[in-house]
Design brief:
Radius of gyration: 19 Å
Shape: elongated
Distance between the termini: 21 Å
Order of helices and strands: HEEEEHHEEHEHHEHH
Structural class: alpha+beta
Number of helices: 8
Oligomer: single chain
Largest sheet: 8 strands, antiparallel
């Protein structure tokens, strides 16, 4: 869903307080990520920002640092972003430690995607709480759905009955899968995790040479709940 591309060159290091415009902010984010994990930072062209690429086999493969809503600077992690990640995540996560991240300032949102090769359908109709969503997928087999035997239709009804998707999502599934020639659907029950600093706070941390440590510590705080670290 987010393909790796080698990171771009530098336009001159600046602290966040002196960064002007999106390009300079993202360049500072790149430098911070490179300081934390040298040689593992990639560029995502669609988002025009940078991330640390984690070793395959864990519950998450990417840790982003980017400009966020309201001018904030945010760590963004997407565990369960494909079936392999989702299986590892639900197998290894200490549920209560994961849910308790919200007490430390993290925002957690369910993020269910239905994928076919390089394309994906992001759903938006989930009505479950984070804990209910977690419990459902922790007890559900995370598998590939096949077209045969009304597989797509039955699975769409299954998700709708458990309030994981809405009627709009069902119409999209009908268009993208049922009425298409696609023969399988990869089910990717993930999450979006965001930890954001207000820009003034991030500027101050960077000025005081504490932002690198803060990013590393916060990212590891989340990653450790499912057995990973930077």
């Amino acid at each position: 869903m987010k393909g790796p591309v080698s990171g771009g060159g530098s336009c001159g290091e600046k602290r966040l307080g002196g960064a002007r415009g999106e390009k300079q902010v993202q360049e500072r984010c790149r430098v911070i990520l490179e300081t934390i994990a040298p040689g593992t930072v990639k560029y995502w062209p669609s988002g025009r920002d940078y991330y640390i690429e984690l070793p395959r086999g864990g519950g998450a493969w990417w840790v982003y640092l980017r400009r966020w809503e309201g001018g904030c600077i945010a760590i963004c992690i997407y565990p369960g972003n494909n079936m392999s990640q989702a299986r590892a995540f639900f197998k290894r996560t200490v549920k209560q430690e994961f849910l308790d991240l919200v007490r430390n300032g993290w925002k957690i949102q369910p993020s269910l995607a239905l994928n076919y090769r390089s394309g994906f359908l992001q759903t938006h109709g989930n009505k479950l709480s984070v804990e209910q969503y977690f419990d459902f997928w922790a007890s559900e087999e995370i598998r590939q759905i096949r077209r045969e035997g009304n597989g797509f239709e039955d699975f769409s009804q299954h998700l709708h009955a458990h309030r994981l998707i809405n009627a709009t999502d069902q119409r999209k599934i009908k268009r993208e899968f049922i009425e298409s020639k696609r023969d399988f659907m990869n089910v990717c029950p993930g999450f979006e995790l965001i930890f954001a600093w207000r820009r003034a706070v991030a500027n101050r941390l960077d000025r005081d040479k504490r932002l690198v440590e803060a990013v590393r510590d916060r990212a590891n705080e989340a990653l450790r709940t499912w057995g990973q670290t930077l």
